Amino acid sequence: MICRRRGRKPRRGRTAPPFPGRLPREIVVLIGAGFVVALGYGIVAPALPALARSFDVGVTAASAVVSVFAVVRIAFAPVSGRLLGRLGELRVFCGGLAIVAVSSTACAVAADFAQFLVFRAAGGVGSTMFTVAETALVIRLAPPGLRGRAAGACGTGFLLGTITGPVLGGALATVSLRAPFLVYAALLGVAAVAAAGLLRDRSGSPPPNEPAAGSVTFTTAVAHPTFRAALLADLLNGWTVYGVRLALVPLFVAEGLHRSSAWAGVALTAFALGTGACLHLGGRWSDRSGRRAPVLAGSAIVAVTGVALGFCTSVAALAVVSLLAGAGTGLMTPSVTAAAADVIAAGGRDVHGGTAVAGFQMVGDAGAVVGPVVAGVVVERAGYTAGFATTAVIALMTFVCWLRTSDTRPRSSS
User: What pairs with residue 215 in β-bridges?
Assistant: First the structure.
């Protein structure tokens, strides 16, 4: 009897661990919605320039269809931040999905290039609405001790969608260049309905007409040194992941390594695999040991691989370096998002931080737009080694900036 009593665990008075081990169901819903959105975005990616060219326009005009989407995202981000305080995160999230769904349907039936360009630009409005709202929902719904893992899981879902989507989109494009846009619209509609149903009354957002507990503006957040460090890291992420990597790697493979453009896909896939393999690891590391260590490790890896990319002499070497670069990005990304969330939610999760979230999102988008332009100019004047080194410079600046910041990881769930 004594052994039995000693072996028993007390049922009453047990305290829960300071950080719950499972992500809330609402975060899982956001992960699924992000996957569906990224899947649809990947589906239309192969058909987007081809459909633009079908209107008898040049390569520059066709490229403008891609650029206008990003430009509108940046321009509308401040408005999206203000909408969060007026309508609530869930309404802005679902409304953004609906706008992109309508935009995608309109692109599928566009009669000329002008209509196609306008409809695609309108999609940028909805895109920034649901991305800003998603980040705000993660801040509100994720327990403070699980923010890193929540950010890593959301990033993994989005990454898996971007990897799977182009494969399906390429097959659909062989049937019809307009079919991928209709499929994308249908996927967005499903995501919007599912999110509205599953997150209704569970998003924790106060009714639009009720005053919030407080607000954190971008100006207030940027006064915090950790938030400034997170902005620089987010600029690096946009510059590297969505900018230089997509713009320069295919050209480097063709002109520097003298291989067909199909081999560029190997390097891009290796980068995605490295990122996907380390997002969860970076999130758990962030929640257990703090935000600084994963960012320092990741930015150091990105800096070294940024220099090494330009010295690759074979596709195999390029793939290995790309894999390592992706791993560095995967380690740091969840911590960067979690650190920004720590600053915004320092006054409590009921505090509105729409403009701060929007500003954070804008910096990453700006890196994706400016990065390829700056790196392209550098390549024309000094070669690909110098062009890739622009990433290393920003990564080194990020490393130094994070060395001087304090950790913002919450010490307890309270």
Answer: 352
Please compute the mean of the pLDDT values over residues 285-294 and round it to a whole number: 92
Q: Where in the sequence of the chain do the CATH 1.20.1250.20 domains occur?
A: 24-201, 215-407
Query: Amino acid identity of 115?
Result: Q
What does the pLDDT average to over 113-133? 91
At residue 352, φ and ψ (nearest 5 deg) are -80, 130
For 193, other C-beta atoms within 10 Å of its C-beta total 13
User: For residue 333, what are its two tokens?
Assistant: 């990304």
Query: Would you state the structure tokens that stand for residue 387, as one six-digit string?
Result: 């062009």
The architecture CATH gives domain 24-201: Up-down Bundle (1.20)
Question: What is the model's pLDDT at position 203?
Answer: 54
221 with 362: CB under 8 angstroms? Answer: no
Residue 314 has which token pair? 């074979």
Residues of the chain with pLDDT > 70, as a percent, come to 88
Q: How confident is the model at residue 211 (pLDDT cuts 50, 70, 90)?
A: very low
DSSP-derived secondary structure letter, 207: P
Task: Please list, in sequence order, all residues whose beta carbon lies within 8 angstroms of the beta carbon of residue 256, skipping any fewer than 6 positions away.
Answer: 384
Give pLDDT, residue 235.
92
Element (H, E) at 273: helix 264-289
The domain 215-407 is classified under which CATH number: 3.40.1050.10, 1.20.1250.20, 1.10.1670.10, 1.10.760.10? 1.20.1250.20
CA distances to 69, 165, 269 from 42, rounded to whole Å, are: 14, 4, 13
Inform me whether the pLDDT recorded for 333 exceeds 80: yes
